[in-house]
Amino acid sequence: MGRPTTFTQAKADAICERLSNGLSLRAICRHKAMPSKTTVFKWLAQNSEFADQYARAREAQADLLVDEMIELADTPKVGKKTKRTADGKLEETTGDMIEHRRLQIETRKWVAARMRPKKYGDRIDVDQKTTVEAGDSVMALMKAIDGRTRSK
């Protein structure tokens, strides 16, 4: 039996549930009972209700990534690091894998900012001060209409 290609709400629900639980679309579509990514993208283009449901699942996925960042930051992970010393010997140390956790957090932060830019994206403070000087033509126009638009 081949992969499903006909849209069903049950498949859409399963895809969106797995997305909101943190799985990538690639991982979901690897499963033999799921449609290919190409089919999912076609369904998204053809079905606005599924597109809305999918967008909400992606928003939930971004929120989940933020929760994971907090957990990663708060939970030390002990591992082994190996490095070569100046004399060519391998030296193994055990300790917190902080570099690895930092990479995991930064990756999730980047992805969450792309999934929900209004909520997790960088804030850009726009402060624009503009000075406008009325030229002769604007002043002449204002004099010409002065009094015509006011109630008497």
Number of helices: 7
Helix content: 55-70%
Mean pLDDT score: 89
The major pleated sheet works out as: 2 strands, antiparallel
Helix and strand content put the structural class at mainly alpha
> What would the principal axes of the Cα set say about the shape?
flat
Instruction: Work out the count of structural domains.
Output: 1
CATH class: Mainly Alpha
Order of helices and strands: HHHHEEHHH
CATH homology group:
Homeodomain-like
Strand percent estimate: 5-15%
N- to C-terminal distance? 83 Å
The CATH topology is given as: Arc Repressor Mutant, subunit A
Task: Supply Rg.
Answer: 28 Å
Which regions have little confidence, pLDDT < 50, spanning 5+ residues?
A: none
Under the CATH scheme, the architecture is Orthogonal Bundle
- Which strand order do you get reading across the main beta sheet? 1-2
Kindly state the number of beta strands.
2
Organism: Sinorhizobium medicae
Protein name: Terminase small subunit protein
InterPro entries: Sf6_terminase
Pfam families: Sf6_terminase (PF20901)
